Structure formats: C-alpha cells, structure tokens
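Q: I'm a student working through a structural biology exercise. My instructor gave each of us a protein and asked us to get a predicted structure, then write a short paragraph describing it. Mine is Molybdate ABC transporter substrate-binding protein. I'm not confident about reading structure output yet, so if you can add a plain explanation after the tokens, that would really help. Here is the sequence I was given:
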Amino acid sequence: MKAISSMATRHVLADLAEAAAAAGLPLLQIESVGGVDAARRVAGGEPFDLVFLAVDALQRLAAERHVDPASITPIVLSEVAVGVPTRSPDAAKRPEGTAFANADELRSALRTASRIGYSTGPSGTELLLMIDQWGMTDEVRDRLVQARPGVPVARLLAEGEVDLGLQQLSELVGQPGVRILGVLPADCAISTVFAGAVATSSSDAAGAAELLAFFRSDLAASIKSLHSFGAP
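A: Happy to help. First, here is the predicted structure for Molybdate ABC transporter substrate-binding protein. I'll explain a few features afterward.
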C-alpha cells in the first residue's frame, strides 16, 4: 500500500507502519513531503491508498472528493514548541525544557530575536495569525524566516539561519544543534491534530481502513508518546 504525509509526522508514521506490518497488516510505504505539496499531489489525482495531513487539510480534500470523508481518523495531537541553537546565549540562559511562563514572555522573545524561524505547515500559519492578532506583524516581518517546504525548522536553528524557531515539538526533539525551551504557554498554545484518511483512488479501501484503525488503537499509543505526540 502507498501513502503520503506531511513531514511533521514522518517518523511516527514510519514506526506505526512497521508495528502494523509486524501485527500482520498490509505493508505501508509512506512518502513524506511538505504538507502543501502533499495536498496538491492528492488533489492532482496522484493515486494513494492513505493520506496523512492536518485535519483541516483532509477536510478540504474530502470536500473535493479526493479522500473519503467518513474515513478521516485523528491520529496524533502535536503541540508547537520553541527551540534555540544549542550554542546561543538563550540556550545558556534557559535550561532545556524551561518553557515560557505566558504569552508576554513569548512576545518579548519574539521582539528580541534577530531571526525567527517557522514552518510552511499549519503551525506556521497559526503563528502568523497569532502575531497579527498581537499587532506585531510590522514589527517582526523582516525577521521572519519561513523554512523551505520539506525543510524542518530544526535545520535552520542548527545551521544558524535563525536564533529562535517555532515548530511542532516532535520535529524538534532529538535534533542535533537544537535546545528546546518548551511548548508554548497555555495562553498562546498552538496545537494541530494530524489525521489519516482513505484516498478515493485506493485500490484496497478496506485494507487501508484497517491500517487506520490500528494507527488509532491503544496498541499504537506508546509509539506516539515516544515521538512526543499526544492523543487527539
């Protein structure tokens, strides 16, 4: 079977697919690309059995009859976290895991950052909206650096292209050259539910649905937690 996903879930989906195969379910080959590119390819008619994207992206594809709307299944909840380069002054001042206490602290960090990295995915869209709601767009616009499609914000941090990066926690965990300061505080948290759906182009919709059920099952919970995802 063949699937496509955004980059944000590539590692957890690979492990879930491996566990499913070990349980006797069909072998699933997953291609992970930028979420925008994945949706475009599905909408363009490229055949897949399963599609894994943010829920809202799948709902748009369902409205256009590229995926079965009844099959949309929430898989993981992803929270946005803040990271800095390991050797930056902020890394020295803040131990790993030291989250911002509130939105005021995050706004202060955005104001003092020289370059702010964010993703092309749903977390980046939500971040820009939040910055706009705070009335800070003009203040930070020239310092915003959007990661190229398929390039994680962690790479921008590690290579010194940005000194503050915001992306899903799962994309930052374990990446070399990155220190995670913590997830966004409760009063400005950004979270995304990633889901799977059976593509209308699937040649084995029943088998694809069976895989989705496994990905949602209690047997998969420990794999999701290992990759720093929560339950949707």
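A: Here are two points you could use in your paragraph. Residues 10-22 form the longest helix (13 residues). The chain has eleven helices and nine strands. It's a good idea to check both against the output above yourself.
Q: Great, thank you!
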